[in-house]
Amino acid sequence: MILSPMRFGDYIWPHNPRVYEIEYRRCVACHKVPFGTYVLSNMGREQRILRGEGEFAGPNAYEEFKKLATIFYLDKPNILIHPVWQSARAWFVGLKLKQEPRKDYVSYEFEFWECFDGYELSLQPVLSIQDSPKENGVNQKRTYIIKKGDTLWGVAKMNGLSLSEILALNPQIRNPNICHPGDTIYLS
Question: Does 15 share its domain with 108?
Answer without folding.
Answer: yes
